[in-house]
Design goal:
10-stranded antiparallel β-sheet; mainly beta
Length: 341
Amino acid sequence: MNASIFGRGAGEGFGVQICTGPMHVQGAEPGDILEVEILDIHPRPSAKYPGKSFASNASAWWGFQYHDLLEQEAKRETVTIYEIDLADPSFATALYSYEWTPQTDPFGIVHRTMDYPGVPVDHASVSKRERVLDGIRIPARPHFGFIAVAPREADIVDTIPPGYFGGNIDNWRLGAGARLYLPVAVEGALLSLGDGHFAQADGEINGTGLECSLTGTIRIRLHKAGADALPHHRGLNGPLIETPTHWVVQSFSYPNYFRELGKNAQSEVYQRSTVDLALRNAFRQARRFLMDVYDLREDEALTLMSLAVDFGVTQVADGNFGVHATIDKSIFAGRIAPEAE
């Protein structure tokens, strides 16, 4: 597509995530809930180096750190390359790093910063720093950072800011064994997923996770709207993650930035997101979840949230900042579980 009509540069797309989709889900209609279960996920092997896989982390200008470096006069973006031994893919180790230098893309455009991830790097133009993070292992947390259905508000959607429809959630808990519930907004749901991460910490503080080509196996279930909806589906208006042991209520600075920010929402959201807004929305959604699913009064939900619900910053890298509330299912051991009702 010609992304210049959206103010993007030559060779760019509308967003940067590499995704599979959209997939049309037969029978899906607005008001339904789409369940995406991650059955398996693993790094793709290198075609050049047998038994190895590789990943990268970019400490980029859109990261939280860029305007808070110790040497403010020496602004820099740094790329670190990691190796995964497929004989034991439980961790990754750093191979080398390099500082970004201006790169010329195949269209002849010079990129002085990493303004568009995916620009080919001329390795003759960078100086590699070897033996970085020597003796340190990065624990594997493979997940797809991007899982989304199509929102109803726009025909062409930037893949970077997440929202009520899912998208670039970047929550590492969405690994094998996890399920993501998304409210269907358009006919057929139009599911897309991608943005493979081998690992990531809460916050995604420098702008990216450990970006890696991943192969996943998923199972899709469609839950029709109606009176027999499961308790955790009732009133669902944003992403909900379920793991074998936890519920994770996911929210953002603007859960529906299309509606909240108007006709320029896809650019405004980058300028107006804050962690405070994201925390406020995560609190509200977690309160509603506890009241709807476990039949708690508001005051009961409030004391429980302060004592046994962990709120964490999912990411401050994706335009629409994320905060999640993690709820341990075991605290309800003496109460009827949602699946049993």
